[in-house]
Amino acid sequence: MREEQASQQNPQPPNGDGGSEFASTVQGHNVDLGNKSFTRRDNAHTINHNYYAPTSEYEHRGEKRKYEDEQDHDGQTFGYERLLKSLDFPQIDAQHENIRKAHSKTCKWILERPEYHDWLNPSKVQEHHGFFWIKGKPGAGKSTLMKFLLSNARSKMKSKIVIFFFFNARGQDLERSTIGMYRSLLQQLLLKIQRPQSLLDSELLSRISETHEWGTEALRTLFEEVVQSLKSTPLVVFIDALDECNVDEIRYRISSFKSLGDSTVSAGIEYHVCFASRHYPHVTMPRKVDLVLEGHEGHEQDIASYLDSELAIGNSKLADDIRSELQEKASGVFMWVVLVTGILQQKYDQGHIHALKQTLREIPGDLHELFRDILTRDNDNRDELLLCIQWVLFAKHPLKPEELYFVIRSSIEHGRIVEWDRDEIQDEVIRNFILSSSKGLAEITRSSTNPTVQFIHESVRDFLLKDHGLKDILIESSGNLEAESHERLKKSCFEYIQNYEADDKKILVFRTSRREEITTDRGKTDEQFPFFRYAIHNVLYHANAAEEGNIGQTSFLDNFLLPVWIKYNNLFETKAKRRYTLQASLMYILAEHGLGSLIGSNINSQSCFDTENERYGAPVLAAMATGNRKTVWRLMKRETRNEQPTSRLHDLCDEFLEYQTRFRIGRNFTFAQRRGILSYILDFGQGIVASFALASCRPFLELALEDENPLFYAVRFADDYPPLVQLLLDEGVGVECRDTKLKSPLHHVAAKGNEAILILLLSKGASLDCQDIGGRTPLSHAAGNSQGIIVLLLLSQGANLEYADNEGRTPLAYAVRAGSDSTVYFLLAKGANIETVDNMGTTPLFHTTLVFEMFLLKVINVAKILLDLGAIIDKTDHTGQTPLMRAATLFNSQLFDLLVHRGADINKTDNDGCTALLYATRCGVLESARFLILHGASVHMTDSTNGRSVFSYAVERDETWRGVVELLLCRGVLVEQAYTAGITPLSYAAMGAL
């Protein structure tokens, strides 16, 4: 039991909507997220849609669009299902399931309370912003009351969306974390509403996999977006045990809900949240409805009803007095009532009715003191009790009942391995054993799929750890109870592994490499020896925890059965790529599992940079791949064991802790010997670790790198740790090395803009005008990336201003295309040729019409500079096109206006007889066409390739072109004139939309 009462009935509220007279007016749960942050489709991929003239397939567009829509819908559905699966986790509803239903005569009182009605009253939302906070002492019965309220809401609030999360401090990580809460709430919410269109956006869903690693802020943002999209659909949220985490996380949760509550009130969204928690820690929330359980008349009546029903000691005056005294002594703590009821009932059943009053007087009134009394009352099965308590407290994850049963038996029977005979050891036997071993303070959860063992209430854990209750039952202790407990659990695991390996009944594994037989062996092992998997997976975890508590593990590691452990770990690992070779080192395994404390106890001479034939290559890479920053630091510290105090390595270790750079590569990479460890370390973005490796192990420089020299990685990530470049150069790495695209380190630095590294490379003799595979120089890359300071430095060192690449483009052309007005001005001031042309005859001014959309505004200033300094406005390229003609195909009103007002020839023709207006109409650029007509462009021009006119192109466009057609008609275009193919404008109009 988590908090208290047991019953069989589902209580019925007195009126129709969960005890509230305020009925919702909403019918159904239709949701529209609107055009919020998830909707990107409306403004994406629109740059080039007007460039394409009608094709012969024009009449089939409708059918094609329908097919594509169906394809998109299938992909979106799959992505949406992926999103839901990414939110799911095995214990998502475990705590709610484990709480017993309220006793049939309890909890109904809350539905009549004015606090409850005020909470659901929309007219009072400005007073409380939708928040109802139930508080009570540990064990008061809050969770049972919350489960009652949730059940009532589900059955009675049919017009509302009802979701919930019950925190469980005794459960696994997601059961007690904010991330777990948001994942659960989001999944419930998305399952209860129609699929919101903005969540079906393929760009969003394409980034989500079923194993997506969610962050708290991403989940919070998504949850708030969905809630704010509900509009007229009321939402009711129940959050139990809000306090079962550290204070900072509690404050974060409250702040998040408060912020959302404020925004929903402003938006008129009906949003109700019910919290339940202890009184401490105190977190201020100005607007809410409060209800305190203990001392409340309804809560006290619940206790009385429970005692009348469950304390079966008759109806005598003595019995009434005992019930009354028990209730008074309980001080509103239902958990205390339940435990004491069991003790008194046992006395009564044994015929000791005369001793009931004395027993009740001897029982401590404080819940924690009651736990202490239960645990220390006698010495029966003390070893079992201690082991049971330690396993429930300190197991890496909650144990299954059979796991706990067999490890306790193995430990108290001197390591004997017992095979599970289900005819002899049935579930009831295990249940009774756990009840007896824990003296009733542990229970098996009610999960139908994955039952585990946990304490009956979080207050038991608080008593054992915070109130030093564990010390009362741990007879011999040096003071570090947690470390001593982990040492005991480690020994239990290790002895189990040793004795299993020596047992004749063990399953012979890996007899073949066939997947089916390995799966069979794994299943048999789990079935016959249910604790063995846990022992293999966590023996090192417990050893690491003991080491953290200063219980040395050197002797343990010296005697550790590494080949045996690898064999069975591989058996339980379902993914082949995660298995180890039999030659894997202990250090590598410790590093991959993040067991940093044990690394210092491993006294062999191996370096963490030594590569092995394992997935991640070296221990240090294994630690990086799994994100264990502290373990990387411990590996580095271990390397300094024999170093002098003045060694630079000590400083690098300290710097590694100071520079909190993230690891750029995750678990999915696989080490390749051809690249070498140094390049991987740099790929992870760990310049300090690379420097450490070079300073401690120079042979690493000798590793062959087929793709790139270490210097390339160093300059690429120079911002992470600048001294690394200097270190590599001091070690003799050449500055003229090239990558696969023939770029030198100077190319990379010039593009990135790191001034200090550039000067360093130049001081080492780097070539100023070296060319990459495309013929571009460092100056070209600097200009094309708007690195003005780098351009200045390179020119001051003598870089060639007019060096053209394979396409004939100079640094000036790239500066123009980047929209960098300051770089353009500087290059021209240094003598760059303003009329230089590339292989296509394109001038710098012409390049202003070829920029990406993101640079359209910047390029106006560039064009003004070029024109002010004398650029020829109508200079043509090899096809006869002018800048104005090219600009007509991509309308930029400011650039267009600039060119026309600076004197561009509006009627100039190219080699095919096309004018700017012909380009605009042929390419379907409406604004360009309108602008040119209004500024006097000739409307009678025809191109020389097919004889078509401006009018023939305009009339085949859609309805939006009607204004342009009318302008052309007003200017006297010939409507009936046939062209080269004998087709008149009217024929084109019939094929179009006008």
TrEMBL record:
Signal sequence region: none
InterPro entries: Ankyrin_rpt (IPR002110), Ankyrin_rpt-contain_sf (IPR036770), NPHP3-like_N (IPR056884), P-loop_NTPase (IPR027417)
Database matches in Pfam families: Ank_2, NPHP3_N
Superkingdom, natural source: Eukaryota
Keyword hit for Metal-binding: no
Annotated stretches, region: Disordered: 1-73
ANK repeat boundaries on the chain: 706-740, 741-773, 774-806, 807-839, 879-911, 912-944
Alphabetized PROSITE patterns for the sequence: ANK_REP_REGION, ANK_REPEAT
Polar residues bias (residue ranges): 1-10
Biased composition (Basic and acidic residues): 57-68
The protein's name in its UniProt record: Nephrocystin 3-like N-terminal domain-containing protein
